Amino acid sequence: MSLERPEPDTAVVSIRFEHRQDALGIGTPEPRLSWQVRTDDPAWRQTAYEVELDGATRVRVDSSDQVLVPWPFEPLPSRRRASVRIRVACAERWSGWSAPAAVETGLLRSRDWTARFISPRDHGAPDAPAPELVRTFALGADAVSARLYATAHGVYTASLNGARVGDEVLAPGWTSYRHRLRYRTHDVTALLRKGENTLSVVLGNGWYRGHLGWWGARALYGDRLALLAQLEVRYADGSVEVYGTDEEWRARDTRVLADDLYEGQRTDLRFTGGTADGPVDVLPDEEADMTRLVAPEGPPVRVTEVLPAAKVWQSPSGRTLVDFGQNVVGWVRLRLRGTEAGGEVTVRHAEVLEDGELCTRPLRTAGATDTYVLADADEAVLEPSLTFHGFRYAEVTGVPDLAADDVHAVVVGSDLRRTGWFSCSDPDLEQFHENVVRSTRGNFLDVPTDCPQRDERLGWTGDIQVFSPTAAFLFDTAGFLSSWLADLAADQHADGAVPWVVPDVLDTETPTAAAWGDAAPVVPWVLHERYADLGILERQFTSARSWVDKIASLTTDGVWSGGFQFGDWLDPAAPPDDPFAARTPPDVVATACLARCADVVARTAEILGRAAEAARYSALADRTREAFAHAFVTPAGRMLGDSPTAYAMALQWNLLPAPRQRETAGRRLADLVRTSGFRIATGFVGTPLMTDALTTAGRPDLAHRLLLEKGCPSWLYPVTMGATTVWERWDSMLPDGTVNPGQMTSFNHYALGAVADWMHRTVAGLAPAAPGYREIRVRPLPDRSLTHAGAVHLTPYGEASVSWRRDDGLFHLEVVVPAGARASVHLPGSGQPPVTVAHGTHTWTSEDPCLTPAPPSGPATVRDLMDDPALWARTVGVLSGHGLGGDSPQLARRLGPFLDLPAQRLPALLNKVLFEDGGAGAAADLEALLSGTAS
Predict the structure, then answer these.
(1) Would the pTM count as exceeding 0.85?
(2) Residue 1 pLDDT more than 70?
């Protein structure tokens, strides 16, 4: 067969440059290429590919790779626009050529900038109105193309001839401004006109000069707003005119009287502006280092959704309240008619209500208030542009008879492509998963923040370290997190210490906290695992290694003890005002994290071909495991602290050297889950590990029990309380509807939603087995609590999915594998080795693995009784019905010492041991229950 004959059922689609399909203004001269293949041929296997540049130069590569392959041509210079087509071969059969994909480089060198940072001299002071910088210029001919390269100290919104430039919000976003400042490339060709043109840019305080942190800090990066803009206009004859920011620009005030990310925005709609005649200063190089400028790696912040009001009503105090039906991040848009000059409208925001009124206490010092002074107008649309809020509810004053149709929530966030979905037969679990999705959207606003509403909104390293696997399934976070990791490396201390937040505004002298600094090695590893990005491992290796070297230097006899630690932050046993007070000793957490991080760095070095460093960090991991076991583990496998987090870390991070210790740890973890009444008993460190650790211990049934529990504390408790996002605390809202009394309470935190990764990998059964999902592990572990479950993920190779259902004694499994990948499929309960399948749709039907009958004699021990959900629920009902305990956890704790007792002997204990003289009636009813004679 001819090499040039196209294969009609095979096509190359979804070409990407680095991690971007929109590759305008890319920041590298050699962008790596990725593509997907669609084919109807079940025998198709890529053996070669060919890349064509600008319809002329072609390069063939004999390889099966199709994700982040090297750029095969000469490096592209700045401003170069190129067109790429790709075709692929299977042996001698070639596909057709793909549709052309465009890539255009930005300004790759600092000397490509002729513009300079300018700052208004007499406008834009810290407490003055937001300034606007203006430049008017004349074009003598029709332009064939025009690019605006722009960034700011502060945030900016640009307009050209009165039309908005781009659709970004709060550009250029937040980076470690002293080291890295993103600029963005805009195609403004369509906005230009022959003759006079006006380019204007409004500047806001943003993260650069606004409030940051709960201690009232402001202007942490500088007290002057500034703009850098370079408009390059190209004509048909090849000539170029450049209009860059310089001393010819002029400044004026705007109607935005005040703006702050925490406080909100105040706008005077009566303001009409005037001639821009205020002078500007060109900032000296030491205030505006051009070498900081970098192109974006991920998408900008945009409006991603507009939600109508679900309800408008009057509170008990007579205030107008609006419910948008879900917790969101953004602002409120109001449409008013017949407004009169001088009237004022105020919009306050909050995530929850308390006693029927807006509850703003969790905001701490953040005002979260937008105000508007009205002008005479037949119709007016009120919304801010230089702030954002986290809220579900709004209180609106100054608008009599507000109609629901006239108020909307404008939702903003980094415009990440959705890539992951989960479904199952339990509506509450599906709602929980949707809450995880919403919390990701709300907190992935240019940096992965802890929360979007109070006086914080910082990029806490510990939160994203535990959550990155979940995030990478739900959304394409490759460029977003790659950019954030560059900031982490930039802000990392010379001795390797990793700041607690990135960008670092805390400026802590020695920020060495286990699990938080672990983001340095762990997040790059996750990006490699999920996106096959070897480059991120290479780029971040020094950062990862330096962190491990730093914390290893703090050990004594291999144990990291003493010093500040967050520990298992927000353990539910901790009192409201002491989130540090976890059950797991901080030294146990710290030493375990060191072992894990050393192991990750060792594996990273091995992949990168750094044999000596791989051996060095592997040896460090082994020594730390030995020290951990010596210091914190008995020979039999019991652990210091005897907490679920301790056992979960030990099991998941391979910290127990002896099989007997691992077996004991697994049994003890299971018993701790039982005696907690299947309520969660872990904080930020232990929570992401619990369901995996129970699975590792051979008890996925208990993991399902833990996941599906609805009492407080549990993952589903907030769902029962009406939550639409994940909470910071397990009990951010108490069962009586009051807000947790602690000073730190958020209703939109993603960290505790990290269990969704286990839902994807184990409940549904879809997991990566090789970087980028080139190999997929399909291994669902169904439980009788669910009749069906499934997950869909848009992998770098295309859509993969797993779905299963149980009915009529049968188990049905369907697996979809994209071209270029293969899957190893484990049929649950079959006892057969896994089956390897290539791309396509595959189905299996087998006996339902959840139909194991209960022993006819009933439960042998109290432990067995607790492991039967229905029988345990009836047991709790009997005991609590006789006043012998208020709930499942209380009764479970009472029975903790008797787990090995024969279940039939339990009634005799009620009078003699457990409840003194109060258990006579309960004993009879319990005996009837256990003998099977209860009605």
Answers:
(1) yes
(2) no
